[in-house]
Amino acid sequence: MSVVDVISSGLPRVTVNLQSADEVYAEARTLKNDWMALLENHGGFLISAPALTTPASFERCMKELITLATEYPGGAPRRKETDCVWNTTEFDSNMPIAAHTELSYMPKSKPELIAFFCVKAPPSGGMTPAVDMLAVAHSLPKDIITRFSPGIRTSMNMPPIKGFTWWSIPNFFQPPFHFKPIPFSWKDFGDTKEVASQEAMKNSPEDCKVEWDGDWMQRFVTMPAVEEHKGQLVWTGFFPLFHWSAFAIQSMFDLVYHNRTWRQLIITVSIVVHTVFSRLRYFLSKTPIIRRWVPPCPSLLSCTLKNGKPISVWDIFRILKCYNQHMMKWQWQPGQIVLLDNRRLGHCRTPYDPAERLMYTAFGKRLEANGASHS
Fold it and tell me: How far, CA to CA in Å, does 358 sit from each of 8, 80, 87, 190, 210?
């Protein structure tokens, strides 16, 4: 039998103490309406079912509750484990992953629901807190809501050549002190800027506008900042790491709020230093005397307000502060699943010092009112 309680974070938890995965599937099938009511009322819920041990069992359990997607439309590198399950983003354990809703920057492709499943968890940290976007909308300063409400432009930027390894791009910093080469360039779309621009817009699943910063391609998509969800105004879960400063700011919040260790301190200082050098280099590249030797080198992600005006560091600081203040935390245990309404609740990952962590994710939508579960 399953037991429902509310953990200290405010997110309901269903505990299923059954011996086999088949019994868990049957319990999910029987109590589907009760469990999904938790989703509607709270925006998400946890399932603790130690009998679930593999990505396949995670997928099978989720199919009793929701319709799962078989394709992932986003740009994050993911490895497909089953027809409907992927690994979570593989990012160094101490690096910042700020709160967001999945694919907030791709409004046409944004999934309705997202689920996470734990197979192995570190002894501390490495959590996937939910972030209440209704509370965020009510807590953000009014000036941010007013200026951001028309929309936000986000861009995934592409360098002119692959393997571009300028050490001052913080996005590709990898502890302890080196950088990954960039595995793509805009020439994947075409040999000239004109051809590449046309192909990039044609092949984008979103309404995409191409701009250029020197020899870097910027593919801007406009996303809403706020929207109505079940009659209430919610923040849409803008991913702050699109801003050049957010990598450093979130790493400082990670150190203060989530992982107060020496390793985290060293990495945070490194990220801040590299961010300062990166921005200094970028500004120098814009000066007439220096730009002939130092071409522009923007971050791999960019953002502006819909009207093209820049988003300030102060805005990003306040957004990240609000995200970090409205987290619903729990420490992962093997066999746990969290199912989230991807419009109401965002998510992030807290840092942790190197340890084994094995997580999976799936995306989907609610079953039709008369739809049957499928196995």
Answer: 24, 14, 8, 38, 37
The whole-number pLDDT of residue 373 equals 44
Amino acid identity of residue 370, one-letter, is N
> Residue 171: which of 271, 318, 321, 99 has the closest Cα?
271
Separation between Cα atoms, residue 23 and residue 2, nearest integer Å: 11
Q: Per-residue pLDDT tens for 208-222?
A: 999 999 889 999 999
Phi-psi region of 298 (alpha: psi -120 to 50; beta: other; left: phi over 0): beta
* Amino acid at the residue 60: R
CA atoms within 13 A on the CB side of 268: 20
Q: pLDDT band at residue 1, thresholds of 50, 70 and 90?
A: low
Cα–Cα dist 246/105, whole Å? 16
Using CB atoms within 10 A of its CB, is residue 257 exposed (0-12), middle (13-18) or buried (19+)?
Answer: middle
Domains of the chain: 2-132+328-366 (3.60.130.10), 136-322 (no CATH)
Question: What are the structure tokens assigned to 138, written together?
Answer: 């009510």
Whole-model pTM over 0.90: yes
